[in-house]
Design brief:
Blueprint: E1 7-9, E2 17-19, E3 26-30, H1 37-54, E4 57-61, H2 80-94, E5 98-101, H3 108-112, E6 117-120, H4 128-135, E7 141-144, H5 154-165, E8 169-173, E9 176-177, E10 183-184, H6 189-194, E11 200-203, E12 209-210, E13 219-220, H7 225-234, E14 239-245, E15 259-260, H8 264-276
Parallel strand pairs: 3-4, 3-14, 4-5, 5-6, 6-7, 7-8, 8-11, 11-14, 14-15
Antiparallel strand pairs: 1-2, 9-10, 12-13
Helix pairs in contact: 4-5, 7-8
Length: 279
């Protein structure tokens, strides 16, 4: 079994956040997509305060472009330049690390100039050129496991990244395809992927997504976010990923599987208590 490597995530000011064994639980959270600067700042500020109270490390997440939406007419976000400007504003004003996903190698240089962590979407986790372009930046990479892959198959994706310059990798479990329009979470995935030497993050909100389940968009079962997150923390993960929105029913993307901003702290309090039992 390979020892899990601690991953350092840079902050605009102050010490890096450290993710891995013996470190505070990491929370990556924010709205699915950048809807407005005001909404993004509200979520980031609230989540930063909550994580500070609970002793959690925090990274703000939002997408500047959702290139993998189900239908052509779905909202994708503000785009690369405008979206990165919003992310830079949050990063610098709040002293909080930020992460967003890239879909093409051409986006990587601009994204790396702003982001503290580069995310690779699950559908693109085998795209060699994209993985290696992200690795050349030297930034930590939040690599989502494809819904179509076994946890042990992620070894090949990790090798593609680390062959460039040994970049720091976080592996994200977000559920596996289970028939049509459904996902399941195999809790065995967490220790299996940790054996690859990478900290493992559980995506508690995309895992309850029903892909394409709402016709022209994905549905979701947010009532299962809390129990699955509790189980994942008990299984020994290093961090959680959550999509959070002030009003999920009106969110422009992934509302059915997002958590309401005013309900997050109660869930995280449970998470903290469970993790304390493992220390």
């Amino acid at each position: 079994m390979m020892d899990v490597t601690t991953v350092a995530i840079g902050r605009p000011e102050g010490p890096d956040l450290l993710v891995g064994p013996g470190r505070p639980l990491l929370l990556i959270a924010g709205p699915c997509v950048l809807e407005s600067p005001e909404l993004a700042r509200r979520v980031a500020g609230t989540m930063q305060e909550i994580c500070g109270r609970l002793g959690l490390s925090y990274v703000f997440k939002a997408s500047f472009d959702k290139a993998n939406r189900t239908s052509l007419g779905s909202f994708r976000g503000p785009g690369l330049a405008e979206g990165l400007a919003v992310m830079a504003g949050i990063r610098d004003a709040m002293n909080v690390p930020v992460v967003s996903d890239v879909h093409e190698s051409s986006q990587v240089p601009s994204a790396a100039a702003v982001l503290d962590v580069i995310q690779i979407p699950a559908f693109l986790c085998r795209q060699t050129d994209l993985l290696q372009a992200a690795a050349t930046t030297g930034k930590p990479i939040n690599l989502k496991k494809g819904q179509f892959l076994s946890p042990w198959d992620m070894a090949h994706a990790v090798d593609k990244i680390k062959s460039v310059n040994g970049s720091r990798v976080l592996l994200v479990e977000r559920g596996s395809c289970f028939g049509y329009n459904n996902l399941v979470v195999d809790m065995r995935s967490f220790p299996v992927m940790r054996e690859l030497g990478c900290p493992v993050i559980y995506d508690a909100t995309h895992s309850v997504q029903l892909p394409g389940g709402a016709g022209g968009s994905s549905g979701g079962q947010r009532e299962f976010i809390a129990p699955l997150a509790r189980a994942a923390v008990a299984a020994g993960i290093d961090g959680l990923f959550m999509e959070v929105h002030p009003d999920p029913d009106r969110a422009l993307c992934d509302g059915p599987n997002s958590i309401a901003l005013d309900r997050v702290e109660a869930i995280l309090q449970q998470i903290v208590r469970i993790r304390s039992c493992l220390e």
